[in-house]
Amino acid sequence: MGGFLGFVWRQWTMKPKPLPSTLSLQGKTALITGANSGLGLEAARELISRRISRLILAVRDPSKGEAAKEDILSSSDASCTIEIWPLDHESYASIAAFGQRVRGLDRLDYALLNAGVKMMKYEKSVAGHEMNVQINHLGTSAVSLTILPCLRRTARKINAPTRLTVVSSEGHFWIPFKERHAPHILARMDEPSSFGWQQQRYYTTKLLNVLWTHELAARLRKEEVVVNSVNPGFCYSGLHRHSAGIIGVFLWLFAWTQREGGWCLADAVVGHEGEHGAYLSEQRMTTPSSFVLSKEGEAVQKKVWDETIAVLRDEGKGVDTDIV
Ligand SMILES: NC(=O)c1ccc[n+]([C@@H]2O[C@H](COP(=O)([O-])OP(=O)(O)OC[C@H]3O[C@@H](n4cnc5c(N)ncnc54)[C@H](OP(=O)(O)O)[C@@H]3O)[C@@H](O)[C@H]2O)c1
């Protein structure tokens, strides 16, 4: 895993598959963040095709969510209840309100934390963080904490584990992650001089997704909430809109369709029972980068966790950080 030739080989030879046609998700409830477009929308379509009963599309812009719902309904004869809930990773108030609403659900079987951005230029969020860090890491981590009580309650109610899946990327293998040497990693990542070249910062936040997911899994019992991260593969989507030049050639040569990426996400959400704290790629469990598995990676994972909790405690009013 991880090398360029391996990436090319997998993108060319592996063909992602839809969920088994015999699978029925009747009676289950799922939520997907960033569900109005790209891979999140396709994962939604796939869960609906397997008869999920209730699906929450968590979206930054509700009008885009309504358009996505229309699009799903026009391509399926679903009897699923589809709801559009607002969620903006740049706003802790939005995340806290979303979490509060999730607590009111009678059940939540699956959560796919998929929302993300790939910003190629340094930009600051409202809270003052570099934007990839804010949306991909801090936002996703905060959402994971706010939905945990409902996932746990559901697991007790149905006497079976519920699932939390975080979307990462194979790109987490490909970065120097020099920020790890700083006294405070997240503070260093907020400095423009640390931003790095091309997609480096985006990929670094995808590594943070893997580290956060690993640590969260270590703090939870797999009988309660199963937590994994997933690489959907390199796919056509709006994610690449800020990338210029060579990315177009890469997409043309190597990319899977959005549909195939959505299949990989849906597979990670409902498949691989028994895996916990795992990294899924190409629809199977595999190993994350050697850095993640190293002693140093383990120490950095705990440091990133502590720093993230401290940031959320400080800024994320309404986000419960004492939950794990
Ligand atoms: N496509 C690939 O090749 C690839 C490869 C590896 C990993 N991934 C990961 O897959 C996930 C989905 O990406 P995609 O390819 O489907 O791209 P996409 O079509 O751009 O979807 C990203 C989603 O995230 C949402 N989002 C962006 N900023 C947000 C915010 N502040 N708050 C809440 N939601 C926000 C977007 O909403 P708006 O429409 O409102 O912007 C959109 O729904 C991402 O986590 C990405 O890192 C993608």
Short description:
The protein has 324 residues and is of the alpha/beta class. The protein contains 11 helices and 8 strands.
How do the strands and helices of this protein lay out in sequence?
Elements: H1 4-13, E1 29-33, H2 38-49, E2 54-59, H3 62-74, E3 81-86, H4 92-103, E4 110-113, H5 131-158, E5 162-167, H6 185-189, H7 200-219, E6 225-231, H8 247-254, H9 258-270, E7 279-281, E8 284-286, H10 290-293, H11 295-315
Parallel strand pairs: 1-2, 1-4, 2-3, 4-5, 5-6, 6-7
Antiparallel strand pairs: 7-8
Helix pairs in contact: 2-9, 4-5, 5-7, 7-11
The structure holds NADP nicotinamide-adenine-dinucleotide phosphate.
NADP nicotinamide-adenine-dinucleotide phosphate binds near residues 34, 39, 89, 90 and 135.
Structural class call reads alpha/beta
- Give a list of the ligands: NADP nicotinamide-adenine-dinucleotide phosphate
Q: Which percent band covers the strand fraction?
A: 5-15%
* Count of separate DSSP helical elements: 11
Helix content class: 40-55%
- Domains counted in the coordinates: how many? 1
Strand order of the largest sheet: 3-2-1-4-5-6-7-8
Q: Provide the low-confidence segments as ranges.
A: none
Largest sheet: 8 strands, mixed
Terminal CA distance reads 31 Å
How many strand elements? 8
The CATH topology is Rossmann fold
Annotated CATH homologous superfamily:
NAD(P)-binding Rossmann-like Domain
**Dominant shape:** globular
SSE series = HEHEHEHEHEHHEHHEEHH
In CATH terms, what is the architecture?
3-Layer(aba) Sandwich
Cα gyration radius (Å): 18 Å
Please report the first level of CATH classification, the CATH class. Alpha Beta
Keywords: Oxidoreductase
GO molecular function, one term: oxidoreductase activity
Protein name: Putative 3-oxoacyl-reductase
Pfam families: adh_short
